[in-house]
Here is the input.
Amino acid sequence: MASKQSSASTAQITGVYLTGPARLLRNVALSVISFVWLVPTLGVFISSIRPRAAVATTGWWTVFTRLDFGFRIQNYHEVITTHAFGRYFVNSFIITLPSTLLPIAVASLGAYAFGCLSFRGRNLTFLALIALMVVPLQVAWVPVLQVYVILGLANTYPGLWLAHTSFVLAFATFMFRNFFAAIPKDFFDCARIEGAGDLAIYARIVMPISIPVVASFFIFQFMWVWNELMNALIFLQHPSKYPLTVAIRGLLSQYGSEWYLLAAGSFVLMSMPLLVFFLFQRFFTYGITTGATKG
Amino acid sequence: MGPVGHNTRGWLFAAPVLLLVTLYLVIPTIWTVYFSFFTGGFRPAEFVGLNNFRRLFTGDRLFLDISSFPWSGALINNILWLVLLPAGAIIFGMTIAVLADGHTWERLIKIIVFVPMVVSNTATAIIFRFLYNMNPRIGFLNAVLTNIGLEPRPWLSSRNYVTLSLIAAAVWIWTAFAMTVFSATYKALDKDTLQAATVDGAGEWQKFWLISLPMMAHAISFVFITIFIQTIKIVDLVLVATDGGPAGASRIIGFSFYWETFQNLDVGYGSAIAVVMLMLLVPVMILQVRRFKAEEQ
Here is the structure.
């Protein structure tokens, strides 16, 4: 969908030569949109660094009208130590990393089969995987949890890793397979002539070529799992194992009106995806425009 | 060729994917469909035929209530979501993609719009609880209203507003997705056609409606389908923002499933809701498979 043409070219023909009222209108519209999209997050951020007493008595916007700054990180300190968000941050990491790496390993093997090999039943099986991408997790949660309770996988990280992995596999296989299938067949033929087996071709040719799509998936899945609430809520029962998403829900039910605390807690949760986004922006456009979205 | 046959090798590489997907999606789906004909908590107790479904559509006011106008319940709310969320995201996404294209601040504007997409639904729910807060010393929206002489409104605590307020939050999230797809498509449009139209004296408005928009039809349907699927599955945004309240007024189907199953431990009934969700998505499944087949040929 995305092309390699320079980003300004359509603009040169369409928008850039706007003059007078049209130009003004465009700038006004874009300013209003930017304001609306910025303000909700900005308000929470400013509240997260305002003193507790100030948050409780005046709106966050008064820091601009009264030029009353005096920011501090006390709220973060409280939420990280007193409310154990440091621990939950680590838990989020423990949950997220394997849940991101495992599907890459499993799905890339499958994608190699569907994209680079031909075998009886291949096309039909792949179509079934595409259909499975749409299945709502609501039909899977209860039976999986029941089996987990029997096997002792409930309330364990491996159980959650496997669930995250399995739920994203159809999508990951689809994404990788589309990339693999576009690799020129000559690559494979040459390697075969030189006596390379499939495992060698997969590991030494296909995977190295596919770094862009693997990186894109890694980033998306990392953010997806980090931000995910429902699987953790359903498969983990003990608070000491909670990730940040579940922990902040607990904070909300206990301190629902303590906004200095909720604001800081939210930003601890948001810090990782924001960091990843600002570091790897270009992968987002690539990922989204190659169909990298799921549910 | 190695010692292992063609077919065997293919199936061997695909085996881990197929095994996990069967264990975690296929078998559970069959079990859930089976369970939907029973009552019981985490173990089917009594076979009740289609009773769970009958109760859903005729005996559960929080799921579907058409006894008085306006109709209400999770199903009606979800229909509202299915119309307004894709429409809102597509309209805003298209507007930003086209207006910001080539603008000096294009990159900055896109970053601002993209941030909601990367923070979680959980965080968004908290951000909007703050924005919508009733107290005009806390909630920015009500502060603005009070400032221009209006009464503060209970955005999340009145049954008249709550669903629309939540949909607005979801539009705020999903606009970035639409914007990114549309922007990439827009930049890749055929320049010669647009150039020719300019030479023929077409205005910006005409060029957009008559040339650019029709050429982006495929992108629009892709965005619509993606957001449609999400809208049926969503739970977390509603769960964290309102717990389905006030008095169940902001429930949507995915939320009802969660509440009946894990809060009320009415698992047979919850399974019936999951089956309804699956049924709603079957047409999309067929559509996706057809699309893929068409693209491969």
In short: Residues 1-9 of chain A have pLDDT under 50 and may be disordered. Chain A touches chain B through 108 residues (CB under 8 Å).
